[in-house]
Amino acid sequence: MRIFIGAENAITPIGNTAEENFQSLCDCISGIQLFKGIGFNKQDVYLAKTAFAETTKFQTLIEKCLSELKSKVDENIFISQKTVFILSTTKADIEQHLVDAIGISALAIKQKFELYNDPITVCNACTSGVQAINLGAALIKAGLYDHAIVAGCDVISNFVLYGFQSLFAISDEPCAPYDLNRKGLTLGEACAAMVLSKNKTVFSDSPQEYISGSSSNDANHISGPSRTGEGLFRSVKNTLASANINASEIDFISAHGTATVYNDEMEAIAFERLGMNQIPLNSLKGYFGHTLGAAGVLETAISMQSMRNNFLIRSIGFNKPGTTKELKVLTQNKQTEVNCILKTASGFGGANASLILRKI
Q1: Sheet holding 3-11, edge to edge
Q2: pTM of the model
Q3: Residue 226's pLDDT band (cuts 50, 70, 90)
């Protein structure tokens, strides 16, 4: 069974649609700014924040993102009993709803869009977005649904910000993935969404094809990745095998690239072991920050835009190689044919996930 994917949309500090965001990336516009006195002990912190009311931001982002997405597909998909809605998030609306951070918003979304089925939530650290897309495809392939609406959303809360500060993971300047002088991650917030379907006629614009995806857990540490990249290596190897695709057929890698010392090093080792370290690669964290549960969906949506426009975005913040294994990090925007992409994600607890999309 072929699975089609399209109607991608995204809301971030630099755009309110996938197209707007892609144009901002082409223009090398970053949403990261310095916010005075909002960190732990009133520290100044670099963040990428959206301009919506703090008290309703999580739900508002999802509603606006899905409303735009709805205009790009057959509107009957939203109310069909053969459609599943999957929400990817890590902490959801924890600042406003400590006891039920996800459920209250998920129910409100179901009611607003008249969804037939109860939403499914994927909450597996920073791999949540990629795993949510993989889950949607798996449910369609299993014959349980014909369509999947996948949305990823996370917003910055004190709980999340202070938590990362306590791990000494927050950079005191905009993050610089894979760079020798990187100092840690920058947090961001966003919402992105897309539709997967077994029927390509439901899309207003030509969709792309979801080929395969998988996940693997190296169980190395509660917050630190495997030093050998074992989990990411296994995930990508399995994804390539199930897709029956050789590494040489991948035109571009949308990598995780958090700009932390251990994550970037782990990815470089994994890609070297896979024989993929000469494939053009970027991290979008320098533009959006690390959007946690939204990252996988957001970065997949941008990768889809890259395929539509045959245009690769440079990895902002990268100047000098900072990993022991070589990576072909994009230092300039590049107009080139993009037919097949690999998206990867890694997260706390040893989680790793990947997927492959192809132009049709």
Answers
A1: 120-122, 83-88, 147-154, 190-197, 3-11, 208-217, 351-358, 340-347, 252-254, 281-282
A2: 0.97
A3: confident
